[in-house]
From TrEMBL, chain A:
It is found in: Cytoplasm, Cytosol. InterPro entries: IF-2B-related, IF_2B-like_C, NagB/RpiA_transferase-like. Belongs to the eIF-2B alpha/beta/delta subunits family. Residues 39-48, 92-107 have a biased composition (Basic and acidic residues). This is Translation initiation factor eIF2B subunit delta. Keywords: Cytoplasm, Initiation factor, Protein biosynthesis.
UniProtKB/TrEMBL annotation, chain B:
The keyword Oxidoreductase does not apply. This is Translation initiation factor eIF2B subunit beta. The keyword Cytoplasm applies. GO terms for molecular function: guanyl-nucleotide exchange factor activity; translation initiation factor activity. Residues 172-183 have a biased composition (Polar residues). Belongs to the eIF-2B alpha/beta/delta subunits family. Signal peptide: none annotated. Component of the translation initiation factor 2B (eIF2B) complex which is a heterodecamer of two sets of five different subunits: alpha, beta, gamma, delta and epsilon. Subunits alpha, beta and delta comprise a regulatory subcomplex and subunits epsilon and gamma comprise a catalytic subcomplex. Within the complex, the hexameric regulatory complex resides at the center, with the two heterodimeric catalytic subcomplexes bound on opposite sides.
Amino acid sequence: MTEPVDSAPTASAQDNAPAQPPSQPATENPPSQQNLPIRDAKTAKDKGPAQSDKQPAKGKDAPAPAAGTESGAAAGGDKPLTPAELKKKAKADKAARRAKEKIERDGGAGAAGGPASGAGQARPPATPRKDVAPGGAAQKGPKAPLLRRGSHGGGSAAVEQKKKKEDKSVAVFGHLYGQQRRTTVAGAGKEVHAAVLALGLQLRDYVVCGSSARCVATMLAFKRVVESYTTPLGTSLPRHLTTHLSHQITYLSTCRPLSISQGNAIRALKLAIADIDPSTPESAAKNTLCEFIDSFIREKITVADQVIAESAAQKIQDGDVIVTFAGSSIVKQTLLQAHHDGKQFRVSIIDSRPLFEGKNLARALANAGLDVQYSLVHGISHAIKDATKVFLGAHAMTSNGRLYSRVGTALVAMSAKERAGGVEVPVIVCCETVKFTDRVALDSIVVNEIADADELVSANAAQQVTGLPDPAAFTAPPIDPKKPKGGKSASSAPTPDPVSSERVPSPSPLASWKDTHNLQLLNLMYDATPAEYVDMVITELGSLPPSAVPIVHRMSTNM
Amino acid sequence: MPSTALALTPGLSSFLKSLKTNPIDTSIENLVSLLKRRQIRHSRSCATATAYLLLRVVSACRTSESTKLIERVQSVGRRLMAAQPREMVVGNIVRRVLGLIRDEAEDDREAEFALSEAGSESQPQTPRAFDDASMPLDRDMLGMRSDGGDRSSRPPLTSMFSLLSHPEPENSLPSTPGSQSPNARLFSHGHTKDVRAEVLEGINEIIDELGQVDDQIAAYALDHIHSNEIILTHTSSTTVQKFLLKAAAKRKFTVIIAESFPNNHEATHATVSGNIVGDDENLSFDSFQKPLIAHGITVILIPDSAVFALMSRVNKVILGTHSVLANGGLVAAAGTRVIARAAKVHQTPVVVVSGVYKLSPVYPFDFDSLIEYGDASKVLPFEDGDLVDKIDVQNPIYDYVPAELVDLYITNLGGHAPSYLYRIVSDHYRKEDISF
């Protein structure tokens, strides 16, 4: 991906003069003119994270070979140009145009935050040719160096801004950058229920966080949807409710990608809806569904958690040192249960940026009177040194036995398994079967979730917990100085005293990272822990090795 | 005490500034307190401060008797080491200076031996202008006498030394400026220089080495980084940054930086984005160049927790370190160990870049004693005071990384396997100084 960037300056240097003549025919000759978009689209596609600095150079690079091939075709193959070839060319053009449109649309969607880019590029799909041809000509012509020099200002600001926005997706994870997460309820369909609207925002802000919690909250919201649902005339409830629900689901997934547990729950709910006899009266059907939801939550989560906590607590012995990562609700329940049972043990919580979920766990455990030690990811090797057991929560268990959990879990499990010169520490995963999935994952890259990278910008730990839902404030540097002070008092706000100016720089180096070329921030949500690091998975159906996940999953879905 | 005397914030630069004016004992106290309070923290700053202080100590020590010089340096060294036992660089520099003095003393003895046979004696040259002109003569007399006495008692021992042990280090390190050039100069200039001048020159060379070490290491960058590589690193180590920058001048690759959250993330963020905000002592004395991103290198900043997730795509892990132990193990910023471990699991080579001055002759027996714990409020800020009361918050600053997790060391002398480090140790430090 970097090669063209390398070659661009040299190519442009050579081709500046020769590129001039072919540029004139380009405007009158349709094929060559259409060649341009092809190249353009291709370069744009190849280099998702292309810097806008190099953009003019690339634009210049592109027409040169295009013109070359075009002139070659004109010289050698113009006369024997068959209709078939013409057709092929036309098809290619069309494909290219389509690709370009798609890219522009994606770009517009991705850059929803920046209205300028949308305005600048909204029209091209309608008239791609007109838009590109002059641009291409301008880049080829004597204006090109000018553009390059003033690459930061320039007339093509809109284009550049769009490029910059695209820039920020890490290439390896390109497939994971979907549309940007929804920031408001604006634009949500009118059929989306108010409870779902609220839940969506809560999910997005990590107010409802954790696989089980998200699952329960979703089911409860859907229960309210079902309760307030009335079948429109001319359809039956089993047919229409599914589509009605799918609107809600789509909305939820724009707020935050659905978790495995949510997916499993929704699948079960849809099955339940499909099972309803169309002749059942509406109120009876709704009652059945509500009961189904209640029993699903009870069986799959609430009772399951109790069962797991009880059996996991039995694994804890007096004098144990339990290491856990981040804040899993089921691990919390387990530890509290063990404490309740009168076991004497110590807990070491490892936490990570940016969510600091372990803090809440630490608070809960400390309030319950447990002996808690707290450190961050950098202290893993110290925390694991005197550990006797590792308890982990799960986001999901994949069919190949991998544990898919909050990013950093794999590091903890690995450290437990590879303690230098010591006995291996058993790694125990607590996981409800509703989190089992038939998907497989070899690494953490193919399946993952990417959170807003702005969450990484603020370095202040306290803000992370309380002020998370306001990424807009972090992107705008001028607001920053007030931000950390906001919680304290109004007295410090008017005077930018030395203390504040000293504290402010900490978030500032990254504050403008979106405008910094070549700099990317990556905020992954999950990672996949290899199955060999997991000794035991405790589920409500019993304690299993990770290899038993697909079997249990099949059993539980066939029921 | 140091901060009251100076308007500057205490640190390396203020220390060096005050070194010229303050009396020796004050300077020693000054450095001791700086070390104790961790106002000097980076290994190179510590090394530089120690070297400059020893330069002052040696130049103020009005004796040319090597034993007295050694005693003086040892006593100062002991105080510095006691001030911050985990800062091994200080001990390393002291040991190297001691080694210098011993080398010079031995050479001198040999020279005396040879000269007395030849019967020729020339005026001692003092290239460095020392305050008094009368000194050289006295010193020479003293040296003569003491050496004479020495010679009568143990000439065979000296010659045995020179027969067996001495020639080896000379041959085996042709490229260390610190240890090679004094000998070379000695042979070319004749054997008449006094010990102290030679030692001072040697210390100056150590200081020069400290200044150049990053660039020397960076010179090997192109041997290790190829195009389109994905490199993972940790913290904002200047050595690593320079290494990568050197390669960035010629090649395009991708750098993933783990931010090393509580202890070094601010510096890492600043390094990554190129806007250096805090005037860190680390950055003040080397002209920091353009950041990597300005060279067209894609830099991806990740939280430390994402290391395992990304490791499968990483081609190489390049790490800086705090100090290197003689067994090839590392004492590096906390979090390094899991990164190295994750790299090992993914069969990714781990390269450690470190100046030779960080190489310590200490064999670690008690790993925990090497680890320093830092400010817990960085992990859990005081806003969570209720929580801080109830739980035990830990913020380790260093990690011990065992040698088997490291594939390659790149020092200013070149690349070495971890198992070879003991050899470099024996080249740089004399056995008698290892525990002084």
